[in-house]
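tmp note - NADH-quinone oxidoreductase subunit N
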Amino acid sequence: MSSTRQVGAVLARGASDIPSPHIEYGQIAPLLVVLGVATLGVLVEAFVARKHRYLVQVPLAFAGLIAAFVWTIWLGFHDKPFHVAAEGALGVDQPTLFLQGTILVLAVLALLLIAERRASSFTAQASALPGSEAEQETAAAGITQTEVFPLLMFAVGGMVMFPAASDLLTMFVALEVMSLPLYLLCGLARRRRLLSQEAAVKYFLLGAFSSAFFLYGTALLYGYAGSVRLSAIGAALGRNVGSETLLLGGVALLSVGLLFKLGAVPFHMWKPDVYQGAPTPITALMASCVVVAATGGILRVYYVALENLRWDWRPALWGVAILTMIGGAVVAITQTDIKRMLAYSSIAHAGFLLTGVVATSPDGLSGTLFYLAAYGFASIGAFAVITMVRDAGGEAGHLSRWAGLGRRSPLLAGVFAFFLLAFAGIPLTSGFTGKFAVFKAAVEGGATPLVVVGVLSSAVAAFFYVRVIVVMFFSEPEADGPTVVAAPATATAVALGLAATVVLGVLPQPVLDMAGHAATQMFVR
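out:
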């Protein structure tokens, strides 16, 4: 008994010597709010009756996202010095807050699409086999798949955490928290269930490979620097210590994992299949919020950890950006499915974003931040329009089905045409302002040939955008053509996306000033 008391005393003394972690809860509150609401959503699924879950989940999700956004705005105007919080795991700085605010606003718009009941894109029962009697019974009963809301909140929590991560292990955790719910959400489409499930499996398998590359690269960089902290890796590069083989191998493998989430060539093959097969609201979420989070993570890694290695990674990013812009624009010409066409358009835009990253300057950072906001709003609006154009088989995905839509519904067709013109970068749209910002920064950073390729790729991309406009307004409508579904929540998302696209094109200076102010600080170390 005495020996037991002695062991207990030793353990007590040892525990008292362990310092308690210092967590700045107020500084990371937006992340905690989103993850807390996600956890509450899981409890709602467990304890609330099925018929009441939708009425609880939707307001809860909206409240969580709006509260997190308001707190992010407060942090942005707070006079507390920006720093690395949570024992060095998360960075709280102006670029990160801009990225997090953009993600949260876009997530609210995506939630409007997901919460739509009149034209729901989600299966009534995910566990039922496609075409089975059980699936038909649940659909006829009007059952709603409410698990999508906590899954959405967990995914958004990972997105908010990803660009703020100040060490590679935290970034890997954020990557998995962001990705795992998306793998599930991609397989929940109401129509074309087999295609949706195929997309989910492809995304899961390729995502697992990319995560393995990321983790292996982290291990190699730890072997080089003796730390996974981004600032410590940057300091080790400044001292030029460690094995160059470990360094270059780690950077290459880490870049594979990061560029995969962005969908850059040659790590893009998942994107067209997943965008086409996933429920369109989830496609909108990935085309906007995931792109913002992935680009934020790339910016933090390259600008903080690998700044002293820029002469080695910049030529590689040059090549990736050129392949991405050309590959996305050229292959999009051959597409006849609207969602696949926008998927390749997203790939081309990933190349334009990398042009801003290559600039490695405050102007490049501010231009990239603005581009992310502009592209995100236009993407949400475009995919929201797609969910409203339906025929007997669900969404009218094939381009030929959109023939004459300008005569059937000139307002909706005109809105979609405006989003396409924004993607093309036509003046007086947000796309033109965003491209001008990143191209200007790239020219000032000595990447003029890259800008030339970007301009030519934009010209090629304009062809397939204009082709869709011609089909909608200058083709004869089919007798059994699609109809426009009246969906209030979706229409609200379209209106907000349109308003943001117009404002960022006509009066972009306030947001440009915000992005420029955020970029003056760069990222904390």
